[in-house]
Amino acid sequence: MSNIRFTGTGVAIVTPFTATNNVDYLALERVVEHCIKGKVNYIVVLGTTGESVTLSHSEKIEVINTVVKSTSKRVPIVVGIGGNNTQDVIDGIKTVNFNGIDGILSVVPFYNKPNQKGLYEHYKAISQVSPLPVILYNVPSRTGINMNTDTTLTLAHDFKNLVAIKEASGNMQQIMDLLRDKPAGFDIISGDDSLTFPMIALGASGVISVLANAFPLDFSTMVEEALHGNYPLARKIHNAYLEVMGGLFTEGSPAGVKAIMHEQKLLENVVRLPLTPVSDAHYQKLIAIVSKLK
Description:
By secondary structure, the chain is an alpha/beta fold. Helices cover 45% and strands 13% of the residues. An eight-stranded parallel β-barrel has the order 1-2-3-4-5-6-7-8, surrounded by seven helices.
């Protein structure tokens, strides 16, 4: 099962909301078009950045349908299906309409704090029911548990439809060990915008990005140039956006990127509780940082 579709720049697309806190499907269409015109390689819907945990089941279905329709097969689509109840994740995979969907992103179970054997069995169960390639997602800062190198590599060797990992541990030793020892056909994808350039230099296949929601063309260019070994240009873009990358997470994500996208007139500056928009002071700081890019 090929995973060539999941190289380059994936964007973990935001879910826009109206001022009355409903999903803004027209704005979602604008964001999709903005990202595709910015030459992203694929779109990830219902990820962390999409605030998927605050969406109802019916909203999730409509968000998927809107993205599939708006994308119109111009780029591949990955849908986030994960959770800390393995059976619930399996049931979700069995009931989703995957027409127009090319892959699944599934986060390490959170809150329960399973051991490494539990993580292996969780992804084994997902692998056995998934009709599509699966990207594992390791993000210890959000889940409270790190999927270690041995577990990831064992899964990669044992199940051919587990085709990649979005690695957001921030642990460069772990990342380098994965890149050194991974089997052929299994990709390491950056889960941190700010680590994408050095990870690609070490052998990563690309990124699933937050920043690319707002600046798809520049970030896609950075990734593409890095993948082709043009490190001077890639480094220049990386350094130009480094301060922005940090600012996106200072008061929570996706509040930071939504503030910038509001300034770009792509969507309303609204996130759903328990998240809140960035403070006025940080909003102005973000705009000041972005203004230096021009």
